[in-house]
Amino acid sequence: MPFDGIRNSALIRTITDFLEALPDLFRKEIRLAQVEFSEKIKDGVKASVWMILAGFLALISFFILIEAAIFGIASLGLKLHWSCLIVATTIGAAAAGSFFYGRSTMPDTLVPARSVREINEDIRTVKEQLT
Predict the structure, then answer these.
(1) Could you tell me where the DSSP H helices lie in the chain?
(2) pTM for the whole thing?
C-alpha cells in the first residue's frame, strides 16, 4: 500500500493525462500543418496564374511593339515587307547574340568540382584514419 499515495499524486495524474492527450495533440498538429500547407499551395497556384497572365500580356505587348516598329519603318517610305524583314533581322540578331553570350558563360561541366574534391579528400582522410 505505500505506492497508493504515489499513484494518486498530482504529478503522476498530470503526467498520465499528458501522455493520454499527446496522440490527440499530434493528430491536431498534423491536421493543422496539412491545412496550412494546402492553403499555401492554393495561394501559390493563384499567384502563379496571375504571373502567367502577366507574362502572356507582356508577350502580346511585345508583339504590338514589334508591329509598331514595322509600321514606323514603313511610314518612312519603305515597303511593308522590307520593314518586316528589317525588324525580323534585328530581333534575330539580338536572339543570336543572346544565345552565343549565354553559351560562352556556361561552365564546361555541371559537376560541382569543389564539392567532389572535398568529398574525395574526406574519403582519403577517413581511409588514412582507418589504416
Answers:
(1) 4-7, 10-74, 80-105, 113-130
(2) 0.55
